[in-house]
Amino acid sequence: MLDRINMNFVSRCNLRCPFCYIPFDSSPVTFSMCEQVLTRCKHLGFSIITIGGGDPMRYDFIDDLLIRARECFPFVHLDTNLLRMNAQRAEVVNANVNLIGIPVDGSTAALHNLVRNAPNHFETIEQNISFLDSSRLSIKINTVATTQNLADILSIGESIKIFHPTRWSVYEYWPLGIGLPNQSNFILSVDQYAALERDLSKRYWPFIVETNSVKSRDGTYLFVTQAGQLYILDSGGNNGYLTLGSIFDDDVVATAMSIPRKPLRTQAESRYS
C-alpha cells in the first residue's frame, strides 16, 4: 500500500461548488501549523502528500509551504482551482510539485462555469494553466461526473487536449461534505456511471484516463486538515466523515493506522510511480 496522506485546507474556499466534498469548518490557518503538520506526516513515514482543499493557493504562504513539502516528501501532489496562480507562483509550483490537479467540468466555459457556480472560472483556467511547465511537472485534469455534465463528458476529453495533460481523472460524484444536501441535483445511478466508463474505454485518448467510481475510492483515503485533525470517510453508509483527533496525538495516530484501508486503486497508484 502506498504511504499517501491527503492534507486538505478545510477553513474555507474561494469557490462555492455545489457538489464539493470538503467538510469546511472555519478552522484557523497559519504557516506554522501547516509546516508542523507536514513535518509530522514525514516523521510518520508518509512518502506521498496530496495538498488540496479549499484551494491551498489562496494563502500567501503557499510558496514556502510547497518548498517545505518538497523537502519532506519524495512526491508532492497539488490540487488547485488555479484562481490564484500567476507567473511567479508557477515557478515555485514547477520546481516543487510533481503532479498538479486542475478541475474542468464542462467542455465549454458556459457549462463549466454553470456546473461550478463560478462565473469566468473556465476562462481563468485557460489563462493561468499557461504558466505551468508540463516538462517539469505532470498535469492532471479532474472532472466530476454528475447529471449536469454527463452528456458532455466525452466532449470534455476532447477539449482538454489543448492543456496537454498526462492524465484525466473522471470521478463519480460522491455526496459528501457541503455537497451532500445537493445530491438530488448531481448523483448518477450505478448504471449511468458504468456506461460512462465503457464509453470512455472505447475511445483513444492521448493521455491516461482514470475512471474513479465511488465504490473504487471508498476506504482508500486518509485525510489531515491544515490544523492537524485526522479524519476518514465514515464507512457506516452516512456519506460523511469521521474525525479521529489530532495527528500530534500518538494514540489517535495509532487508531488511524489500525483502521483497515483498501490499497490505492491501480489506476490511481500509477500517478505516483
Class by SSE composition: alpha/beta
Q: CATH homologous superfamily - what is it?
A: Aldolase class I
In the CATH hierarchy, the architecture is Alpha-Beta Barrel
Give the helix tally. Answer: 10
**Total count of domains:** 1
Number of strands: 10
Q: Give the SSE string.
A: EHEHEHEHHEHEHEHEEEHH
CATH topology: TIM Barrel
Please give the alpha-carbon distance between the first and last residues.
13 Å
How much of the residues is beta strand, in percent?
A: 15-25%
Parts with pLDDT < 50 across at least 5 consecutive residues: none
Mean pLDDT: 94
Summarize the main sheet: 10 strands, mixed
The CATH C-level class name: Alpha Beta
Task: Give helix % range.
Answer: 25-40%
The largest sheet has its strands arranged as 7-6-5-4-3-2-1-8-9-10
Shape: globular
Radius of gyration: 18 Å
Protein traits:
10 strands; alpha/beta; about 20% strand; globular; about 270 residues; TIM Barrel; 10 helices
Notes on the structure:
This protein is α/β, with parallel strands linked by helices. Helix content is 32%, strand content 20%. It has helices spanning 31-43, 62-72, 87-96, 109-116, 121-128, 153-159, 190-201, 214-217, 250-258, 266-269; strands spanning 4-9, 48-53, 75-79, 99-103, 138-145, 167-172, 208-212, 223-225, 229-233, 241-246. A hairpin with a 3-residue loop joins β8 (223-225) and β9 (229-233). It has one domain (4-272): Aldolase class I (TIM Barrel, Alpha-Beta Barrel), CATH 3.20.20.70. The protein is built from 10 helices and 10 strands. Strands 7-6-5-4-3-2-1-8-9-10 form a 10-stranded mixed β-sheet. The model has no long low-confidence stretch (mean pLDDT 94).
